Amino acid sequence: QVQLVESGGGLVQAGGSLRLSCAASGRIFSINRMGWYRQAPGKQRELVAAVTSGGRPNYVDPVKGRFTISRDNAKNTVYLQMNSLKPEDTAVYYCNADIIAYDGRSVSPHDYWGQGTQVTVSS
After folding, report:
1. Each residue's pLDDT tens digit, 53-67
2. How many CA atoms lie within 13 A of 84 on its CB side?
Protein backbone atom coordinates (compact mmCIF):
# COMPACT_ATOMS: atom_id res chain seq x y z
CA GLN A 1 0.00 0.00 0.00
CA VAL A 2 1.07 3.55 -0.67
CA GLN A 3 2.16 5.74 2.19
CA LEU A 4 3.16 9.39 2.38
CA VAL A 5 5.41 10.37 5.26
CA GLU A 6 6.03 14.01 6.10
CA SER A 7 8.90 15.43 8.09
CA GLY A 8 10.49 18.77 8.87
CA GLY A 9 7.85 20.49 10.95
CA GLY A 10 8.66 22.27 14.16
CA LEU A 11 8.60 25.47 16.16
CA VAL A 12 10.22 28.59 14.76
CA GLN A 13 10.11 32.31 15.38
CA ALA A 14 8.53 34.70 12.93
CA GLY A 15 10.90 35.33 10.06
CA GLY A 16 12.46 31.90 10.34
CA SER A 17 12.53 29.03 7.89
CA LEU A 18 11.55 25.39 7.71
CA ARG A 19 11.83 22.77 5.02
CA LEU A 20 9.15 20.11 4.80
CA SER A 21 9.66 16.81 3.04
CA CYS A 22 7.16 14.18 1.95
CA ALA A 23 8.27 10.82 0.64
CA ALA A 24 5.90 8.41 -1.07
CA SER A 25 6.49 4.69 -0.90
CA GLY A 26 4.74 1.58 -2.11
CA ARG A 27 3.94 -0.08 -5.40
CA ILE A 28 3.97 3.18 -7.31
CA PHE A 29 3.72 3.31 -11.06
CA SER A 30 3.53 7.06 -11.46
CA ILE A 31 2.84 10.22 -9.51
CA ASN A 32 1.02 13.12 -11.07
CA ARG A 33 0.37 16.24 -9.03
CA MET A 34 1.91 16.52 -5.57
CA GLY A 35 1.03 19.24 -3.14
CA TRP A 36 0.89 20.62 0.35
CA TYR A 37 -2.23 21.54 2.29
CA ARG A 38 -2.55 23.03 5.74
CA GLN A 39 -5.19 23.24 8.41
CA ALA A 40 -5.14 25.77 11.21
CA PRO A 41 -7.33 25.44 14.32
CA GLY A 42 -10.92 26.31 13.54
CA LYS A 43 -10.29 26.57 9.82
CA GLN A 44 -10.84 24.42 6.76
CA ARG A 45 -7.98 22.56 5.18
CA GLU A 46 -6.57 24.65 2.36
CA LEU A 47 -4.20 24.17 -0.52
CA VAL A 48 -0.83 25.82 -0.03
CA ALA A 49 1.16 24.79 -3.08
CA ALA A 50 1.21 22.13 -5.75
CA VAL A 51 3.61 20.94 -8.39
CA THR A 52 2.99 18.95 -11.55
CA SER A 53 4.93 15.89 -12.60
CA GLY A 54 6.92 18.16 -14.88
CA GLY A 55 7.90 20.47 -12.03
CA ARG A 56 5.52 23.35 -12.71
CA PRO A 57 4.59 24.99 -9.39
CA ASN A 58 1.51 26.84 -8.24
CA TYR A 59 0.97 28.78 -5.00
CA VAL A 60 -1.82 30.45 -3.14
CA ASP A 61 -1.38 34.19 -2.72
CA PRO A 62 -0.59 34.22 1.04
CA VAL A 63 2.58 32.17 0.51
CA LYS A 64 3.64 33.37 -2.90
CA GLY A 65 7.19 34.69 -2.82
CA ARG A 66 7.91 33.06 0.54
CA PHE A 67 7.40 29.35 -0.08
CA THR A 68 8.94 27.18 -2.76
CA ILE A 69 7.64 23.76 -3.74
CA SER A 70 9.81 21.28 -5.59
CA ARG A 71 9.99 17.57 -6.23
CA ASP A 72 12.47 14.82 -6.91
CA ASN A 73 10.75 12.27 -9.10
CA ALA A 74 13.54 9.74 -8.68
CA LYS A 75 12.91 9.76 -4.93
CA ASN A 76 9.11 10.16 -5.09
CA THR A 77 9.54 13.12 -2.80
CA VAL A 78 8.07 16.61 -2.66
CA TYR A 79 9.52 19.48 -0.64
CA LEU A 80 8.21 22.74 0.69
CA GLN A 81 10.80 25.36 1.56
CA MET A 82 9.18 27.93 3.82
CA ASN A 83 10.95 31.23 4.37
CA SER A 84 9.92 34.41 6.16
CA LEU A 85 7.42 32.47 8.21
CA LYS A 86 4.55 34.31 9.86
CA PRO A 87 2.37 33.35 12.82
CA GLU A 88 -0.55 32.89 10.44
CA ASP A 89 1.39 30.07 8.79
CA THR A 90 0.87 28.01 11.94
CA ALA A 91 -1.00 24.86 11.00
CA VAL A 92 -0.74 21.15 10.47
CA TYR A 93 0.71 20.64 7.02
CA TYR A 94 -0.41 17.67 4.97
CA CYS A 95 1.20 16.16 1.93
CA ASN A 96 -1.08 15.06 -0.89
CA ALA A 97 -0.31 13.17 -4.08
CA ASP A 98 -2.22 11.87 -7.06
CA ILE A 99 -0.69 8.43 -7.51
CA ILE A 100 -1.25 5.51 -9.83
CA ALA A 101 -0.34 2.42 -7.84
CA TYR A 102 -0.78 -1.33 -7.67
CA ASP A 103 -3.17 -2.25 -4.85
CA GLY A 104 -2.67 -6.00 -4.97
CA ARG A 105 -5.33 -6.52 -7.60
CA SER A 106 -4.94 -3.86 -10.24
CA VAL A 107 -3.33 -0.56 -11.08
CA SER A 108 -5.54 2.39 -10.24
CA PRO A 109 -5.31 6.11 -9.47
CA HIS A 110 -6.01 7.57 -6.07
CA ASP A 111 -5.34 10.63 -3.94
CA TYR A 112 -3.14 9.85 -0.96
CA TRP A 113 -2.56 11.87 2.20
CA GLY A 114 0.19 12.00 4.74
CA GLN A 115 -0.44 12.07 8.48
CA GLY A 116 0.52 15.71 8.82
CA THR A 117 3.36 17.60 10.42
CA GLN A 118 2.91 20.50 12.84
CA VAL A 119 4.35 23.88 11.97
CA THR A 120 4.21 26.51 14.70
CA VAL A 121 5.43 30.06 14.19
CA SER A 122 5.74 32.23 17.27
CA SER A 123 5.49 36.02 17.34
Report:
1. 999 999 999 999 999
2. 7
